[in-house]
């Protein structure tokens, strides 16, 4: 059973920040994910993976997006929490989630060295909207080919209460097969779906490794 540490149990006895990565099937988001693992999360921490599903009725396809990321979290001893946001406006969905969940660090893949967002969204304004729109308590990193292309530091602390952090802590005492999936929409105002059944599925590390290359 996967156990998620609470913040008080994190390394050095310090509370770890809530870190999220926007993910998709695009190579840019894979590079951003790997950068986040190497630079902004530590062993035992939980990394939140955010995917915006812009096509209604494609829930299974949306959940499949997370598959190749899990083996890398396992290798780094990092826990992953999968989030599916249902919205046709990608930037608005991510900004809203960051605000609701009190995310303190957000990592976004860029297909351009000037900070363009992942190519699959086909909208050069998305990264700019995210960059400008996230709350000022969140540090934003735009990653291009494994390097930071743009960064905006937080200017104030995040809210002390986070519903996402409460969920992460709660998973430590809940058996995977006892999760009440009828409560997936506990943040209905943002169509926040958590956790997916696949998050606790047996892992084929070799296969997933090949998918993310």
TrEMBL record:
InterPro entries: Rossmann-like_a/b/a_fold, U-box_ubiquitin_ligases. GO terms for molecular function: ubiquitin protein ligase activity. Keywords: Ubl conjugation pathway. It comes from Ensete ventricosum. It comes from the Eukaryota. The keyword Ribonucleoprotein does not apply. It catalyses: S-ubiquitinyl-[E2 ubiquitin-conjugating enzyme]-L-cysteine + [acceptor protein]-L-lysine = [E2 ubiquitin-conjugating enzyme]-L-cysteine + N(6)-ubiquitinyl-[acceptor protein]-L-lysine. Its EC number is 2.3.2.27. This is RING-type E3 ubiquitin transferase.
